[in-house]
Write a structure and sequence with these properties.
- This protein is an alpha+beta fold.
- It folds into two domains: 2-79; 89-127, no CATH class.
- Helices cover 28% and strands 35% of the residues.
- It is built from four helices and nine strands.
- It has helices at residues 22-31, 47-56, 71-79, 120-127, and strands at 2-8, 14-19, 37-44, 61-63, 66-67, 89-94, 97-102, 106-109, 115-118.
- The strands form three sheets. It has a five-stranded antiparallel β-sheet with strand order 3-1-2-5-4, with helices on both faces. A two-stranded antiparallel ribbon has the order 6-7.
């Protein structure tokens, strides 16, 4: 399990939580948040460590598992490593669920605002124009 620290927007509160798949959790949190969510830091740990952190930083609690990025919490996050990598894909939220785009895929948005994902090869085959 992993403890994550996800911030809502550039200056928004930070969610302290735990998950097996941090990137899936990030996508889920993003679905329910109008601001861009940023994965600030991660560390090993589970539910017990998460509860400990909630208690340790309770003076910065904004709501539920969301905390203001101030004082001891800000210093603590600076002491942790940034995530080593990001997933080799993105999830695109749209009506009816999510689309997954891998590195190298082409994302197309049609006139009605509906997204589709094509491999680079399919894109070249479908949209290649003669010179």
């Amino acid at each position: 399990m992993t403890i994550y620290f996800i911030q809502a927007g550039d200056r928004g509160p930070v969610k302290i939580g735990h998950a097996k798949d941090v990137f899936r959790r990030l996508a889920s949190i993003q679905t329910h948040n109008h601001k861009e969510c940023i994965l600030l830091r991660v560390r090993r740990g589970g539910v017990h460590e998460e509860r400990h952190l909630h208690h340790r930083f309770m003076q910065y609690r904004v709501h539920s598992e969301w905390f203001s990025l101030k004082g001891d919490l800000a210093a603590y996050l600076k002491s942790l490593r940034k995530p080593d990598h990001y997933p080799p894909y993105i999830l695109i939220k749209q009506r009816g669920g999510h689309l997954r785009a891998e590195i190298g895929d082409v994302i197309i948005r049609d006139a009605e605002g509906v997204f589709s994902v094509l491999s680079a090869q399919k894109f070249a085959e479908q949209y290649q124009r003669p010179c």
